[in-house]
Fold this protein.
Amino acid sequence: MQRGARAGTATSNNKLDFGEYGLQVLDRGWLTAKQIEAARVAATRRMQRRGQLWIRVFPDKPVSKKPLETRMGKGKGAPEEWVAVLRPGNMIIEISGCTETIAREALALASSKIPFRCRFLTRQNTVV
Amino acid sequence: MGKVLNISASDRGQVGSANSRRLRRVGQIPVVVYGHGKAASPMSIATSLLGQLLQHPGLVEMACDDGSKRLTILKAAQRHPISNDILHLDFQEVKMDELITSEVRLMAEGEAAGIRQGGQLEQVMFELEIECLPMDTPDMIRVDVSGIELDGALHVRDLVMPEGVTAVTDGGLVVFQVRTPKAELPEETEAETEAETEEEASAEKKEEK
């Protein structure tokens, strides 16, 4: 099946570039637009209008699927969803303007919507 | 600032990723020293020095194999994106009477006036590029944010720099700002209601099938 390569680790979008706290993915795979939106909603709800949030991934890859109970052939299936390709090290969400406790809780809720292992990063432990 | 950290470094004969990997396996970190028009010299230092080195923001004196001493600053560090381990370090050779450019961290001090009016403080810039003599390099620049009103901003040109230090970064760039929080909650509630309605509709269709 031609689903593209997801080898290696993230060579870009792997650092905190905008916010003070971030959520970094440790596995590889596809993150659907619905999952990204669910994670965003979960994080912003916990932040309660405090701070700012950046989504660092964009679902730009269409994934097609054949309808149920369809025989093989008759051409490619219709686009079903859009996904972002993630490699270990990619930043998914960045947050700033709130306390570390709130950021941890918000990103923990967001990570529960993401089907990969994630970790919390702060600027203190990434700056040289 | 003002202290000089002394470390010893040895020349590494071979360069390249495979040789660097071998070095890391035996407790060494590959580094490069450059500056003053000289060719870059690939060297290595002991991994045990890293803790000290990364905590020390100022000058580093490297004692080389040939007995020479080189005064340097830590210019860049390359980390592994997952393990966060240091993979490689860049040192720039400096002269005590020569201006250097480096990046220092910015930290807010005080409570912004706009916060009391219901705003929230945002740090837009985390590091500032400065020019100064090596001995004058500050560890960090503390920025007094108490004067920022609601919907106001503090620019690079407004920063009070330590003596002998000038900012290289464009003066018009924003460092801190106080913004009114966005009212996002009602939109989300609507979006969720729509999503729930869609889910219910699709569930009903499945049941019909």
